[in-house]
Amino acid sequence: ALVARDLARYKVEFAALSETRFSEQGQLEEVGAGYTFFWSGRPKAERRDAGVAFAIRNDIVGRLPCLPQGINDRLMSLRLPLWGDKFATIISAYAPPMT
């Protein structure tokens, strides 16, 4: 709820998020704030670290040709229609710091 409120305050249309720590894949609509979150994380039985997501304004979600695709717990893709038959592919990626 806090993230959605800040996104709305700054009039952000969509955002790529990392280190979400959500398990598996899913989506959640924050009706009051006007955003839907799509995430991809590790299986429930594994440690909850990493995780990536997209937060997308609800009016944009309805116009997407396909929903964001979770590839694994560190990578998601989103295809945004531009004009004509052109698309932009946006990536949400997580790379842990090297120690």
TrEMBL record:
Gene3D superfamilies associated with the record: Endonuclease/exonuclease/phosphatase (3.60.10.10)
InterPro entries per the UniProt record, alphabetical: Endo/exonu/phosph_ase_sf (IPR036691)
Superkingdom of the source species: Eukaryota
Protein name: Uncharacterized protein
Annotated source species: Schistocephalus solidus (Tapeworm)
